[in-house]
Amino acid sequence: MKLEPPSYQYQSAFLSFYQDFADNDSRKANYYREGIDDFDAYIQRLTDEASGINLRQGHVPCSHFWMVDTEENILGAIRIRHTIDNPFLSFEGGHIGYDIAPSYRARGYGKTMLKLALPIAKSLGISKALLTADEKNHASRGVIEANGGELIDIVMGKVFPYPVARYWVPCETKL
């Protein structure tokens, strides 16, 4: 497993990744729809976001990565926001967000993906990352806790209309 920045070479893998969401988690599929509508523009936007170029209103620089297996399937996507300098991110969005494709869930890939992302966050100057999860999403909370996440509190989301568990996760590389 490795994390790869979004790239044109993964277009067919991205189509499969998207289709998995469309078939099995349509709510999350909408987040990736832009990549189906215009893949080139989508890759450019993600690349620009990592450099802090052409940011959409309210967005911060954000590095995107796809977790790719040895057969070049995209198993998941992870986003590392370089800062959380706005009310939404500092309260309920956090530094890091991720999704595992529905067909690859419950196999430990989320834990691996976050483990691979934490040194990248550290290289961006983040010593401890704020991560959040729906209070009832025990799988996501398990991913965070397996990577050293310490529960801060549970708050009622202002954008997400449900209780949100908030964690600090150290970004040190574990030997």
From TrEMBL:
Residue ranges of domain N-acetyltransferase in the record: 1-172
One Pfam family here: Acetyltransf_3
InterPro entries hit by this protein: Acyl_CoA_acyltransferase (IPR016181), GNAT_dom (IPR000182)
Protein name: Acetyltransferase
Originating species: Vibrio zhanjiangensis
